[in-house]
Amino acid sequence: MIQSVGILFIALAIIGLAFCGAVLVGHASSGVSGGLPNAVSLIGSSGLSAVDFSLFAKNGKGWSAITQGYGDTLDSYLYIDHWHNGIDIAADYGAPIYSPVVNGVVRAIGDQDDYCPGKGFGKFVVVEDDANHVDLLFAHLETIDVSPGASVAKGVELGAVGSTGLETGPHLHLSIFQSAGFTVAPAYGCGPYPEGHDVDPVPYLGTTYR
């Protein structure tokens, strides 16, 4: 009887360890989504001194600065529809952000902290890339260095990394939306709100934008 109980206890312990391992693996793989290398969580990575998209070339150091991936992530419960509509890139406070768009137009700028402090994108810039039929959102900025309607070429400084809006530290939020149906209109009590059909930015990095 004692021997049987012992065997049963060992079997349950093995099953419990296997279950815990499955849960941990599940969290590790979902921590960073959107096709990042090996789906490894990069939270805690060092920030970039400048957001230059040439850093996302193959094996470039930009990849190690991505702290949150696209879509269903560990933190996506914080967002509307429980979906992270872009990626987060760790960068130093005040780091310049350079446009990756070869021939773009500033579609909109805004500051949601004027309407819902600490709850939205904070200061943001939207650049329309007509050649690729997408709009790029750069959010949580400290400063904005461009104006609506201005033409921007690759390498033009759009602004600087900050900690405005909903954030836990200085970083750049980058979203890419299909231009068709994309709008910037008042919503959710946060003033002008960039919204539309978002796509995973990761496949664009190191290819379309490099």
Please characterize this protein's 3D structure:
The structure is a single chain. The chain has one domain: Glucose Permease (Domain IIA), CATH 2.70.70. The longest helix has 30 residues, at 2-31. It is built from one helix and twelve strands; from the N terminus they run H-E-E-E-E-E-E-E-E-E-E-E-E. It is of the alpha+beta class and 210 residues long. 14% of the residues lie in helices and 30% in strands. The strands form two sheets. Strands 1, 2, 3, 4, 5, 6, 7, 8, 9 and 12 form a ten-stranded antiparallel sheet that branches. The chain has a two-stranded antiparallel sheet with strand order 10-11.
Instruction: Summarize the biggest pleated sheet.
Output: 10 strands, antiparallel
The structure class reads alpha+beta
Count structural domains.
1
Number of strands: 12
Distance between the termini: 68 Å
Share of residues in helices: 10-25%
- The CATH architecture name reads Distorted Sandwich
Considering the protein shown, what is the CATH homologous superfamily?
Answer: Glucose Permease (Domain IIA)
Report the uncertain regions. 1-45
Strand content: 25-35%
Q: What's the overall average pLDDT, rounded?
A: 81
Reading the helices and strands in chain order gives HEEEEEEEEEEEE
CATH class assignment: Mainly Beta
Shape: globular
Helix count? 1
The fold-level CATH name is Glucose Permease (Domain IIA)
Rg, rounded, reads: 21 Å
